[in-house]
Amino acid sequence: MRRVIIVDDEKWIRRGLIQSISWNEWGLELVGEASDGGEGYEMALDKKPDLLFLDMRMPGLDGKQLLGMLSQELPDLLTIVISGYSDFEYTKEAIRHKAFDYLLKPVKKEELAAVVEKALLELDRREAEKRKASRVQGEDWLRQLLLHAEEGEDAFVPSSWQAGEYAVMLGHTDTFQEQCDYARLLPVIHEQLNRMKPFLFGGRWEYEVTTLHDSSREIAIALCGARLESKDFSRLHTSVLAGIKQAGSASISFGMSNRKLEAAKLGEAYNEARKALSGKLLSAVNALLFAENKAIPLSGMYPQDQENSFLWVLQSGNKQAVEQEFERLFAAFVSDVTTVEHLQWSADLLLHAVEKQLQAKDVRLEEICGKNTHMYSELIHQRNDVDAMKKIFKDDLLPAVLCFYGQSGEKQGEKVVSELKKWMESNYDQSLSLHQIASSYYLNPDYLSRIFKRMTGKNFVDYLTDIRLHKAKELMNKSKYKNYEVAQKVGYEDYRYFSQIFKRKIGMTIGEYRKAIGQADQ
C-alpha cells in the first residue's frame, strides 16, 4: 500500500478528497491529515508518505514553503497541489520547481482519478528504476566476488551478507543459445524468489542474481542465510523454473554448490556449481545437480579408432567422406550416459588431434582458421549440446582445414608416392601393407592407393609384385640360390604362392625360366 497525507486548512476539502479517492482500488492508505503547513511538515517527516495532497494558501507555513522544505528532507515524495483559480499563477510557479501535478478547486472526481493514476505510474517507474539500480549494484559486487576476488582478498559484501551460510546455484541453458534475453528473465526470477522468501530457509535468507560470461549464458544465484537447509534447495529450484517458464525462456539446468561458512568462499562455491553442472546428462533438461554427487570417470571412453579413420579421410580433402566420418565420430562420442563434461572433453581431444596432424605438415590451426586451439577450446567449453558442438567444427574449423588439404593434398600425395617407391625398392623383402604405410603418413589408405595408381599406372600390390619378380630374376641370373631361397629373399614365405605368381606374370614356370637362362635349379 502506498501512504498518503492530505494538508489543507479547509476541512471540507480534506473530507471531499478522502471520500473521492478509491483507496483499495488504487492501493492507497491514508496515514494522516493536517490543517496547516507546520503540522503537515512534522507529519510528513514522521510518516514518510509516498503521495502528498497540498493546499497552496494556508496560514503560517504555506504550500510553497512546505514544498521547499520537504524537497530537501523527502526528495522522493510526490506532491499534488490543490489551489483555486485566483492562485493559479502562484501554483504554476510551485509546479515548475517542486510539485508533481495540480488540481483546481473545486476538485472534480474524474480529474482527481486522472492525476492520481498518473502519480501512481510515476511511483511505479521510480521503484522499477531503484530495483534495477539495486540489482545492478548487487550484480556488480557478486560478479566481482565470484569471478575475480582471490581467496583472502578483501571484497565488498553487503552488511546483510556478513554472517551465516552461503551457496551458489549456477544455471546454463540446456541447448546453446546465440541470444538470450536475460534482461527479461532476471526480473522474473527476482519476483519468484521474493514470493518464496517467507517459505524457504526459515524466511531468514538473502539472495542475489546475476549473469556471468555473456557468451556462455550463465545465471548465478547466490544465497546467504542463517541456515541453508538442503531440503529447500529443490523447492528453490522449482520456483526458479516456474519463473523461467513464465518468461518463455529456453530450458535451463542448474548446478548447486556445497554450503560455505564465509562469503569469501563464494568464488569456490561458483566453481563447485559449475563442475556439478558439467555432470548433467545430455538428455536431461531443467535438471538440478549437486556438487557432492560423484562424476563418471572419463578415461577409456574415447573412440580412438573412429578418430583415426576421420583423420585419414580429412587429409584426403574429400568433403563428402569427411562429413560422413565426422558424423560417425560424433555418434561414437554420445551414449545414454554421456555428460556435458564428456562431450566437451571428447571435442577437446579431437581439436588437439587435428592440430597435431597439421603440425606434422609444418602448419598450425591458427594459420589456416584464424583461431588457435585455446580460442577453439573456449568455444567448446561454452557449448553443452551435441548440435552446438558439431557446429563449431562443421561451420568453421573443418572447412578451413579441408581447404588447406585440398590445396596441398595432391602435392603431398605425390611426394609420399615418390618416397614410397624408393622405400619399396629397398624393402621389397619385407611384409608390406598399404594400410600401415598410409597410417605412418597420416593418410587415408584409399586416397594413397588412388594417388599411387595415377602416378605409377599400377596399384600398390602389382607394383610391389613387379619389383619382387624383377629382383627374383636377378637372383636367378647371378646366383645358385634354390628356388625356395629366391622366394624367401624377395618376400615370399610361401614358395607355392611365389611360383604361381611367377608363372602368371612371367608366362613360364620358374623351372622353364631357369632352364632358358641356363640356371636350372639344383
UniProtKB/TrEMBL annotation:
It is found in: Cytoplasm. The modification 4-aspartylphosphate is found at D55. Transmembrane segments: none annotated. Keywords: Cytoplasm, DNA-binding, Phosphoprotein, Transcription, Transcription regulation, Two-component regulatory system. PROSITE patterns: HTH_ARAC_FAMILY_2, RESPONSE_REGULATORY. The keyword DNA-binding applies. Residues 3-120 form the Response regulatory domain. The keyword Ion transport does not apply. Residues 418-516 form the HTH araC/xylS-type domain. Its main location: cytoplasm. SUPFAM superfamilies: CheY-like, Homeodomain-like. PANTHER family: HISTIDINE KINASE-RELATED, TRANSCRIPTIONAL REGULATORY PROTEIN HPTR. This is Response regulator.
